[in-house]
Amino acid sequence: MTCGELCISSKNSHPPLCFYASNRGLIPCLIDLTCLPWPTGFIHEGKATGVLSTIKDIQVYIATPTEPIPEKAILIFPDIYGVELKNTQLIADRLAVDVRVPTYVLDLFGGSCAPQPGTRTDFVFADWLKGHGPEKVLPIIESVIQHLTEKGIHKFAAVGYCFGGKYVFMTSQKNWIHVGSTCHPSLLQIPDDLNKLNDTSKVPLLINSCEFDEQFGAEAQKKADEILGDGKYKPGFKRNYYAGATHGFGCRADLVSASFPDACHCNRASLTPALEQQKEKTSRKGGIRQEFCRDREMVQNSPLIRSIHTRDCDSSHPKANIPTCLKHPAALCSDRASSLVTYKNTEELDAVE
C-alpha cells in the first residue's frame, strides 16, 4: 500500500473498519467512507451572496436577510469540507432569504478543514480527524453562541451535515440550542449519544436519514427509533428516511444530472409546499405562528414535515434502487427541502421555554 491509500477490511460492519497507510504504517480507524477527500459529491451551481467574516477569530459565513426576524439565528455545522464549500454557503443563503433568519456557517476546524473534493490525493483522514475532536470543536461553537448572545440573539437552531451532525447531538445534550436537525450524521457513539440525549436534552430533534449510509445506517436508525421514538424523547423526535438516497444527500447531491430529469421537479415539488406553509402562517410579528413548538410531538405532527415526506420521492420510483453516488431523486428532493423543517421551527422559537 502507498501512503494515503485506503484499505477496507469489512463493508458490512457498522461502521466499517478501515486502515489508512501513512508514514507510520497502517492506522485502524472507524470512519465515514463517503466523507473522503476524493469526489463523493457534487459542487452546486450558483453564486454565494453572503460574506465570510470572523467571530472571535473563528471564520464564519454569514447570510443575512433584508428584514431579519430579531433575536434568532440558524447555525450550520458543516461537513469536513468546512465553511468554504459553496454548497453549504448556498444553503445558508437560501435559508436566510426564505426564513428571514440570519444564518451562520461555522468553521469547526480552526482553518484546517479537509481539502475540497478531488483536490488532493495525499490527505489522510485518520490523521486529520485526530486534531478535530469534541475538545477542539465544542469551544468553537460555544464561543460563537456566546458572541451572538451578547449581540442580542437568544434563540438558536442548529443544522449539521455529516461531521457536523454529531455536534447537533452534542449541543442538544448541553441545551445550547433550541431546535436541532441533522442530515446523515457521522461519528456518533450508538447508543450512548442517543441515551444521553434522552437523559439531558430539551431540544426537539429531526434526523434525515437515508438507505446507503455507513455511518448512520439501518442499525443506528433502528436504535434511534427505539430510544427516541414513540414519545420516549419528550421534547419531540422525527426521523425521515429517504429510500435509495446516499450519505451526503443533504449538501452534496447532484441537482443537475441529465440522467435524472425528474430530479429538479422532485426538489421543487417538496420545497414549494414547505415555503407556502411558512408564508401562510405568518404572525403579526412577521414570523411563523407558534403552532406546534409547544407540543412535545412538534416534529412528528408538523404539516411541513409531512409535505416533505418521502411519499413525494418514494422507493417505488424506477430509479430508487440505484445506489449511484448521490444521484437518487430522493436525495435531490431532500437536499434543501428536508433541511427546511428545522428552519421553520427556528421561526417558532418564541414558543420554546
TrEMBL record:
One of the Pfam families matching this protein, by short name: DLH
Gene Ontology MF, one: hydrolase activity
Highest taxon, organism lineage: Eukaryota
Residues of the Dienelactone hydrolase domain: 58-255
Alphabetical list of InterPro entries matching this protein: AB_hydrolase_fold, Dienelactn_hydro
PANTHER family in alphabetical order: DIENELACTONE HYDROLASE, PROTEIN AIM2
Protein name as annotated: Dienelactone hydrolase domain-containing protein
